[in-house]
Amino acid sequence: MASSSSSTTTWSFLITLICIFLFMGLSYAGDPFKFFNFEVSYIDASPLGVSQQVIAINGKFPGPTMNVTTNDNVVVNVRNKLDEELLLHWSGVQQKRSTWQDGLPGTNCPIPSKWNWTYQFQVKDQIGSFFYFPSLHFQRASGGFGGITINNREEIPIPFDLPYDDITIMIGDWYTRNHTSLRSTLLAGKDLGKPDGVLINGKGPYRYNDTIVPDGIDYETITVHPGKTYRIRVSNVGISTSLNFRIQNHNLLLAEAEGSYTVQQNYTSLDIHVGQSYSFLVSMDQNASSDYYIVASARFVNQSQWQRVTGVGILKYTNSKGKAHGPLPEPPQDEFDKTFSMNQARSIRWNVTASGARPNPQGSFRYGSINVTEIYVVQNTPPQMVDGKRRTTLNGISFVNPKTPIRLADQYKLKGVYKLDFPTAPLTGPPKMETSIINGTYRGFMEIILQNNDTKMHTYHMSGYAFFVVGMDFGVWSNNSRGTYNKWDGIARTTTQVFPGAWTAILISLDNVGVWNLRTENLDSWFLGQETYIRVVNSEPTNKTELPMPDNALFCGQLGKLQKPQDISYATSMRGNESKFSFMIIMLVSAIFVVFQ
């Protein structure tokens, strides 16, 4: 009887213990977690036939594609094995309520060399195609980038039949000099010059022409099944070159642009500017007599002089009978006339009836009927001398990143780190170097007119938001230009092109508290100061609008004395991660072991 009583007591204890652990597990239940480990290091590669040092993620160039689903909690442990500081930026991920995770110098202190640091953010109410990259020291010019795919939840319908498979393609201009050499060139007051080539998924061109392309270059091959439809996601991760993307003999049915489903329409080719991402539905409906060219070529240049700056890959059917041959499919023939490209950009429209990340239609947010509360005309100029240095500007101000990040300075109520005086229109008088940012109004509705007075194409990106592209045209914007705005189905996206000698107007609903970067995506102009930040503050702080500063926040600048001298990222407390579940399992197993001894 005593043995039976003891056994009953033991099982009662175990059942109670299991219930406790199940309750703990439920208390951490909610949206799923996805975990990634990124080791960022240098490797030697020869994408254009010249050995050089590139930045790899887990030994791969480009890095792995992060495949997640709407509302997933994403945890990325980053090990910095470079010889300089590092930040990773998740371009297009809106970081709702978590500006602390944006990976830019205005919000984060850098990860020191040989340190770990863990990012944790939620891809809240987002779908679409994006990419990540290193945001400091011109490092993106050496790689370190990779794709981000945010899938719909199963219960949310997508506005097309489920594709057979998903393919990610990274395109971009490329130099055979690494980022430190390119950086030195810019700091010396010089232009970078013409790129040495264009890469497709980190690889050089297929040898379509024996004179132009040297032998021995590794090229990208994408193998597909005949009769199937694929979703092909393409991002321009380059430095400053707009690229025309096309696949020989195949239509590109545009389906999505940076998190918004588009009105579906076919293109034989599409201009993809620096920092932009699109996804296409491509049907493999051609015969398999040969392979087909995948091409990414520079836009608005003399093609005869830029022939070598062309990326060429291969689309290979599984039953292909031969190699691709003949000339490449022709790009648009409009070196000096950008009207075709602008009209193409205007043709990209929001699918207002499709569900996005939520079940309600995208068009249920009627942006065209909201009153504008703040207006900024933001004008760039070609590089100019500012305080004896060759710099770039917005509204006459060349931005200087503070040693103490803006958001961290606010957290600790530091004075003098930045100024809330970014002008609403271009300044008169000589340009200046300052840390001047925009004071945005929480729940305001901001209109920004991006006026490109430079001689080259620019793309502009804003962190924390998707903005509505409501208009673009050549010439100088005026109040009368509003009569041309698209107030119904202008695409909502994170990066927009602004043609030289032209303007683009965007509308932004300022509902995401934080400090958000507004910048040119042209890496050389960004590096030289063409950016600012928009600070959005809730006057009644609450965790519902912004999460607390993370436990593992790094300190630098005026707050550097608060930073512990060792790598502590593994010991930090995160908001619900796999270690909690592992801890519960270990405790449960340990308890069972003790009871049965």
From TrEMBL:
Predominant cellular place of this UniProt entry's protein: membrane
Gene3D superfamilies: Cupredoxins - blue copper proteins
GO MF term (any one): metal ion binding
Entry superkingdom: Eukaryota
The UniProt record lists the keyword Amino-acid biosynthesis: no
Alphabetized Pfam families for the sequence: Cu-oxidase, Cu-oxidase_2, Cu-oxidase_3
Topology relative to the membrane: Lipid-anchor; GPI-anchor
Cellular component aspect of the GO annotation: plasma membrane; side of membrane
The protein's required cofactors: Cu cation
Cleavable signal peptide: 1-29
Keywords: Cell membrane, Copper, Glycoprotein, GPI-anchor, Lipoprotein, Membrane, Metal-binding, Signal
Family: Belongs to the multicopper oxidase family.
Name of the featured protein: Monocopper oxidase-like protein SKU5
Organism: Solanum stoloniferum
Phylogenetic lineage: Eukaryota, Viridiplantae, Streptophyta, Embryophyta, Tracheophyta
